[in-house]
Design brief:
The chain is an all-alpha fold. The chain contains eleven helices and no strands. Helix 2 runs antiparallel to helix 3, helix 4 runs antiparallel to helix 6 and helix 7 packs parallel to helix 11.
Amino acid sequence: MSTVTAVLPEPSTRRAVWPDPGPARVSPLETLRHVRTLAWRNLVQVKHNPMELIDFSVQPLMFLLLFTYVFGGAISGSTSEYLTFALPGLIVQNTLFATLNTGTGLNTDLTKGVFDRLRSLPIARSAPLAGRILADLAKQVWAIGILLGLGYILGFRIETGPLQALAAVGLVALFALCASWIAVLVGMLVSEPEKVMVFGFTLIFPLTFVSNVFVQTNTMPGWLQAFVKVNPVTALADATRGLFVGGPVLTPTWHVLVWGVVLVAVFAPLAVRAFKRRV
């Protein structure tokens, strides 16, 4: 009878094959750190893209000067009176238009492969999206400060108090944060950054101009007033005016908050789903 001897490999050549555990789970604290880092990245990029300075600095100032000195006398009879009325509305309009930069920036990062490089890093998957939104929110607050600064030079005065003024800036920024989910969704769905701007202008232009941002509601035809009164831009402009120069605050603020909740509830899940599909 023959004996069969099993030959085993040397211990040094044996290797256990383990299943791939996948990427490590990122803690909430690390996620916040990743969001802060990517938000700072987006802010620092401004020095490499001076055109963003025009969007967030020069363009709002041009709107304020043009509407005050070209239309102010015809609408209110006095440029100073019109400045008091129009500046809060211009802040609202400019902030809503600035939300389009969020969708444009996200689409640009996608088409240029930035997200592909970020995905290979051990970072939270939501950090690129949250970082972009946070950075653009900071730019919008900067634009509000620029408008208030020029308005002060031209003669605008806050007639309430510093706390009410901060509340006005916070309310506008909060609504912009809610509305930015629309821009995020569009940025995820379209193929080119320019299409985000086209869609955005098509939506935001009617909402801002068919409101009381530039003129009193009672000067419009009756059939148009019905839409203006339920327009969320009108509620935001009324609340901002009330907090800056006095007037009704509670009712328009509640309307703004309700609209903000509706926008987040409808568009945030759709935007996150589209974001996950793209990245």
